[in-house]
Amino acid sequence: MIKPRETHATDFSILQQRVNDEPLVYLDNAATAQKPQAVIDALTHFYQHDNANVHRGVHTLAERATAAYEQAREKVQHFIHAPEMETVIFTKGTTDGLNLVASTYGEQQVHAGDEIVISIMEHHSNLIPWQQLAIRKHATLKYIGLTADGELDLADAARQITPRTKIVAVTHASNVLGVVNPLKQLARLAHQNGAVLVGDGAQAVPHMKVDVQDLDVDFYAFSGHKMMAPTGIGVLYGKKALLAAMPPYQFGGEMIDFVHQQSSTWTQLPWKFEAGTQNIAGSIGLGAAVDYLTAYGMDRVHEREATLVANLLPRLVAMPGVTVFGPHDPAKHTGVITFNLDGLHPHDVATALDMEGVAVRAGHHCAQPLMAALHQVATVRASLYLYNTQADVERLLTAIQETKEFFNHGSVSAK
Ligand code: PLP
């Protein structure tokens, strides 16, 4: 049994370093999370003992590797409450999963004059695949807007989703605004109009309990690396009947049933969508990350982040010269907090915070249409995870205060 939070000093040795002569405070978790020793050990163990290609060999190592790969799938299945292992497809990550749906289901189902509805807060990964599909198919791409305090506007969702809508694709949790969107409600709205609901779970699965059956999403994609697994591994969940009716995404080894000179048939789910040698070690690392999070408890992850946000958000909102984007109510907020300092470029702010050992992200966060809607070119983003502490929050707030004073020579304009 993995010991929770209290042992993080040994679980996450990367966090024990100094950066620019200060103890590291890692607050770039929405970009990627650090890996616990258990995940690193699982990778090392696989390469030291079991490395072989899966599904192809009858020798002992191949059987061990295949068992570990398929066990990882089962772990993920239970973690997201998917009904069957056939509905869990290993991908490279969220981007790959969403492109898979757009290039197969979308290609098959969307026609000229149809509508695809997304939201203005989408990450480019859940925007460009639909935008390009709409261009290819002469379909219309529509956007659900935001309420005044930066939440998804559900009244607008009801207006945008119509009987002409074929696909609704919305993020479960925003990587900028820190809001959680009501996917269950959106799925109901989509289904009432004969459309499917595609959920982007990149910022949700690492931080909260996700039950894909309860949400009633038709497809749901997420990335391993944001939930402490290695990079290059992710998951696409899909309802079995939809997946079964979809054409393959890529062609090659592993995904065939029989190949003739002029035609081929496809193997069953989920392997129909796993062409070529997969990221075997990555999936095993993902299984270890699922074990780690399960042992810690997703309720505890959520509670821990909520406690930190309740301390951080109101103090940041109250700081003169700071603009916080998204809702200001901590109860409506995930551990993603995005802000700007008056008159300072976000990159300068992030660089100044790095000088204090505090790692945050600055930029458009792969959400340029959202930046335009917020009338910003870029923002600063601090994002929390289960290993962050109240001391980290204090360090961030102090570093922001010092940054303001440094650039403004001590005179900060009132809000
Ligand atoms: N969707 C959201 C909401 C994200 O935050 C991200 C990554 O930042 C992605 C999709 C893309 O994830 P990946 O780059 O792992 O494919």
TrEMBL record:
<keyword id="KW-0808">Transferase</keyword>
<protein>
    <recommendedName>
        <fullName>Cysteine desulfurase</fullName>
        <ecNumber>2.8.1.7</ecNumber>
    </recommendedName>
</protein>
<dbReference type="Pfam" id="PF00266">
    <property type="entry name" value="Aminotran_5"/>
</dbReference>
<dbReference type="InterPro" id="IPR015424">
    <property type="entry name" value="PyrdxlP-dep_Trfase"/>
</dbReference>
<dbReference type="GO" id="GO:0031071">
    <property type="term" value="F:cysteine desulfurase activity"/>
</dbReference>
<dbReference type="InterPro" id="IPR020578">
    <property type="entry name" value="Aminotrans_V_PyrdxlP_BS"/>
</dbReference>
<dbReference type="GO" id="GO:0006534">
    <property type="term" value="P:cysteine metabolic process"/>
</dbReference>
<dbReference type="InterPro" id="IPR000192">
    <property type="entry name" value="Aminotrans_V_dom"/>
</dbReference>
<dbReference type="GO" id="GO:0030170">
    <property type="term" value="F:pyridoxal phosphate binding"/>
</dbReference>
<feature type="domain" description="Aminotransferase class V">
    <location>
        <begin position="25"/>
        <end position="396"/>
    </location>
</feature>
<keyword id="KW-0663">Pyridoxal phosphate</keyword>
<dbReference type="InterPro" id="IPR016454">
    <property type="entry name" value="Cysteine_dSase"/>
</dbReference>
<comment type="function">
    <text>Catalyzes the removal of elemental sulfur and selenium atoms from L-cysteine, L-cystine, L-selenocysteine, and L-selenocystine to produce L-alanine.</text>
</comment>
<comment type="similarity">
    <text>Belongs to the class-V pyridoxal-phosphate-dependent aminotransferase family. Csd subfamily.</text>
</comment>
<dbReference type="InterPro" id="IPR010970">
    <property type="entry name" value="Cys_dSase_SufS"/>
</dbReference>
<dbReference type="InterPro" id="IPR015421">
    <property type="entry name" value="PyrdxlP-dep_Trfase_major"/>
</dbReference>
<dbReference type="InterPro" id="IPR015422">
    <property type="entry name" value="PyrdxlP-dep_Trfase_small"/>
</dbReference>
